[in-house]
């Protein structure tokens, strides 16, 4: 931890050094915000870049909704992009921390689809499955500082046809990074909050450096704080850099770089029985090693007397450390006045350490505890390339995406000391010594090829049709390369090849502005998801118990597919804005990870639970009755049920007709924002209905209300400081007690399991920011 903080102080010094640049040439003042003039056939895309959001409203075209900075700025700086998406109807975000940055304890759901079933990209760079252990990407929070997000394009229906994603079944999110400013300057913000939260953000813009228009930015963000219960730090630091080089006026080359380092003490997983018997404040024992040591010997605290599962409430610690590097180069080049070429090259590397102190595996020295460490590593490289041709009323676009992904995941066991004979292992510094056993090792190579072709037809000014399809092939070979037979009870671990392929995934869209302020749109698409990879017994086809089970699974397993139908209407007037979405999804071959055993030594099985039928609606209405006042209310209804019962190990489980796990059937959201001169105040309230915890629905968590409050005042300029602003936010205003994350360790078929986390109580945050 000390070295992390020393490194962060050094970076702060480097980033606060002033940058000298030449004066901006006269032509630059007339350039568009993206540094590119409008090319033929790009009117819609350029319009999207220029959209602004007044009164903290969203902007939309077709089935895509755009969240701009005026919406994102209502959240506490450093809030995860996934949490900021929760402003939209149909999206459910849950987290055990107020800012949604805990990678283990947070999850995003969109119209019944999990974050592992959505498509995510940053400036065209695929971010892969938004998993805690991302086998083919990285979580959006680790990819870009939230302060550097210019906007997010959200398609909750069919998703974007050209989205480079192997996981996009029911929606897509494209994050767009801010461009460097045309003039030299910078931004500084400082946030303070509950639990010793301290976050600093600094961004420097060079302005235009030369006559060719080169400009760049570099930013550094550092966040530190304590957990809201138990003990332990939450630390993160991140560097972003971006270079924009205009080419011949209309084209441009963009370079983007991200480095992120995160250290998070996790919150202890609970079962519903634990919450009922022990309350919401139970957590890991860290830093009290003696208490965990005694518990491993069966000597528990008085509060656990008589509790049937006391050992699983008595873990010492759980820590996650992650380091990421992400780089991308984007070339946007008009080849003629009708033909454009867009290409993205990217590379990404990540290494993680995830630790738990296990009371189930003693150390060779006689200590009843040992440190269990999972070490996932990812290296991936790829490119996308597309041509866009304007031919009369037709805009024809086709492209290719290729990615090579190498994913490794190993689990080691390290010795802990005897009580009173040394310090326990410090999970923060990542130096564990020499393991006394390797429980398992998994190694995968994956190749992805996706092509797409679409024609955008505009027969009249207010009517647009999109016809297209994509082809997707994902081939993965790998599995177990290391195995402790005594630990796993298996002679060999699963190893082999799986391919998910579909040559024709059609897509049809229509967008009709039939009257002034009125819009009607329709999306129909078929999607497929590739097979995920994981460590042993951690929720993928390769994570099943044995090679024999894997071979049997290969004969029957099929990739998840679905048909998505989305019909929407939108009215956009000065005093009233409203939308209504009706959607239907036929989901085939839904693969679920069924989990039993302990969270330290899980027994996980991937099973096809059959089809899921989903019908739902999202409705939103915004009123602007007074200058500066906007009142938004939305309601979402989702009837997503399993189509089949399943039989496993001779037992039939009656899933048919049950709502899918972890996602509510009803959500209500309200936002009131009022601007008066330089002041703004906003109030948010949301209701989340009951959610099924077990697949058969015999265990569920009740619905809950959540409210937050925020205020902002702009003091204006003082000498060289511009737009001095103070923000104040209260999270969980009424101090609600509720279950947030569910299923982080998997969901049980029936009954209870240690796989829920509670949300944070009321928290306060204040921020002062300025530009210069």
From TrEMBL:
Domain TonB-dependent receptor-like beta-barrel, first and last residues per copy: 282-733
Superkingdom of origin: Bacteria
InterPro entries, per the entry: Beta-barrel_TonB, Beta-barrel_TonB_sf, Plug_dom, Plug_dom_sf, TonB-dep_rcpt-like
Coiled coil ranges: none
Gene3D superfamilies registered for this protein in UniProt: TonB-dependent receptor, beta-barrel domain (2.40.170.20), TonB-dependent receptor, plug domain (2.170.130.10)
Keyword Transmembrane: yes
SUPFAM superfamilies for the chain: Porins
Signal peptide: 1-28
Subcellular location: Cell outer membrane
Pfam families: Plug, TonB_dep_Rec_b-barrel
Keywords attached to this entry: Cell outer membrane, Ion transport, Iron, Iron transport, Membrane, Receptor, Signal, TonB box, Transmembrane, Transmembrane beta strand, Transport
Bilayer topology annotation: Multi-pass membrane protein
Residue ranges of every copy of the TonB-dependent receptor plug domain listed in the record: 62-170
The keyword Chaperone belongs to this UniProt entry's keyword annotation: no
PANTHER family hit by this protein: CATECHOLATE SIDEROPHORE RECEPTOR FIU, FERRICHROME IRON RECEPTOR-RELATED
Family the entry assigns: Belongs to the TonB-dependent receptor family.
Listed name of the protein: TonB-dependent receptor
């Amino acid at each position: 931890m000390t070295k992390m903080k020393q490194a962060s102080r050094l970076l702060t010094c480097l980033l606060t050094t002033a940058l000298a640049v030449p004066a901006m040439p006269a032509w630059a003042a007339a350039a568009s915000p993206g540094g590119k003039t409008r090319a033929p056939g790009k009117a819609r895309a350029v319009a999207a870049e220029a959209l602004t959001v007044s009164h903290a409203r969203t902007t939309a075209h077709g089935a895509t909704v755009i969240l701009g900075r005026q919406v994102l700025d209502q959240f506490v700086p450093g809030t995860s992009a996934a949490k900021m998406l929760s402003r939209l109807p149909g999206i459910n975000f849950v987290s055990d921390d107020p800012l949604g940055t805990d990678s283990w304890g947070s999850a995003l759901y969109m119209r019944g689809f999990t974050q592992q079933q959505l498509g995510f990209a940053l400036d065209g760079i695929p971010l892969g499955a938004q998993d805690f252990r991302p086998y083919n990407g990285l979580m959006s929070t680790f990819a870009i500082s939230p302060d550097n997000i210019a906007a997010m394009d959200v398609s909750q229906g069919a998703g974007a046809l050209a989205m480079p994603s192997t996981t996009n079944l029911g929606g897509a999110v494209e994050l767009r990074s801010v461009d460097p400013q045309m003039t030299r300057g910078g931004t500084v913000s400082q946030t303070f909050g509950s639990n010793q939260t301290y976050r600093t953000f600094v961004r420097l813009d060079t302005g235009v450096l030369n006559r060719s228009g080169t400009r760049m930015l570099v930013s550094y963000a550092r966040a530190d704080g304590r957990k809201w219960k138990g003990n332990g730090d939450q630390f993160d630091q991140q560097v972003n850099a971006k270079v924009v080089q205009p080419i011949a006026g209309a084209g441009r080359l963009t370079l983007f770089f991200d480095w992120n380092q995160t250290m998070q003490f996790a919150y202890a997983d609970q079962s519903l029985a634990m919450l009922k018997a022990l309350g919401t404040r139970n957590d890991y024992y860290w830093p009290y090693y003696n208490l965990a040591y005694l518990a491993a010997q069966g000597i528990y605290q008085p509060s656990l007397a008589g509790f049937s599962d006391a050992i699983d409430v008595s873990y010492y610690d759980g820590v996650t450390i992650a380091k990421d590097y992400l780089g991308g180069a984007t070339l946007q080049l008009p080849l003629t006045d009708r033909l454009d070429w867009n290409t993205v090259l990217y590379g990404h590397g990540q290494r993680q350490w995830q630790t738990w102190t296990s009371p189930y595996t003693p150390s060779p020295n006689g200590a009843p505890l040992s440190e269990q460490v999972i070490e996932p590593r990812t290296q991936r490289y790829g490119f996308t390339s597309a041509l866009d041709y304007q031919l009369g009323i037709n805009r024809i676009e086709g492209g290719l995406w290729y990615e090579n992904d190498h994913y490794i995941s190993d689990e080691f066991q390290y010795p802990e000391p005897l009580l009173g004979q040394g310090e326990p292992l410090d999970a923060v510094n990542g130096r564990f010594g020499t393991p006394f056993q390797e429980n398992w090792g998994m190694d995968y190579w994956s190749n992805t090829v996706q092509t797409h072709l679409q024609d955008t037809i505009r027969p009249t000014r207010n009517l647009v049709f999109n016809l297209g399809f994509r082809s997707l092939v994902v081939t993965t070979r790998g599995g177990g390369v290391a195995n402790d037979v005594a630990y796993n009870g298996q002679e060999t671990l699963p190893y082999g090849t799986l391919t998910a392929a579909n040559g024709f995934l059609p897509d049809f869209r229509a967008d009709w502005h039939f009257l002034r302020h009125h819009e009607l749109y329709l999306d129909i698409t078929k999607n497929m998801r590739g097979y995920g990879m994981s460590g042993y017994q951690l929720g993928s086809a390769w994570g099943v118990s044995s090679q024999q089970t894997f071979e049997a699974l290969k004969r029957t397993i099929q990739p998840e597919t679905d048909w998505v139908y989305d019909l929407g209407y939108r009215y956009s007037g000065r005093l009233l804005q409203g939308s209504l979405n009706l959607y239907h999804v036929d989901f085939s071959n839904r693969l679920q990870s069924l989990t039993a055993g302990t969270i330290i030594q899980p027994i996980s099985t991937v099973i096809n639970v059959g089809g899921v039928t989903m019908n739902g609606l999202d409705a939103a209405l915004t009123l602007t009755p007074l200058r500066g006042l906007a009142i938004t209310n939305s309601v979402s209804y989702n009837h997503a049920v399993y189509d089949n019962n399943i039989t496993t190990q001779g037992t039939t489980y009656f899933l048919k007709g049950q709502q899918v796990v972890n996602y509510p059937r009803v959500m209500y959201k309200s936002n009131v924002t009022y601007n008066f001169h330089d002041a703004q105040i906003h109030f948010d309230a949301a209701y989340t209905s009951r959610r099924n915890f077990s697949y058969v629905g015999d265990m569920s968590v009740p619905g809950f209300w959540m409210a937050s409050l925020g205020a902002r005042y702009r003091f204006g300029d003082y000498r060289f400081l511009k737009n001095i602003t103070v923000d104040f936010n209260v999270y969980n205003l009424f101090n609600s007690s509720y279950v947030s994350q569910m299923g982080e360790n998997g969901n049980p078929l029936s009954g209870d399991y240690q796989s829920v986390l509670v949300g944070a109580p009321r928290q306060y945050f204040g921020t002062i920011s300025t530009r210069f």
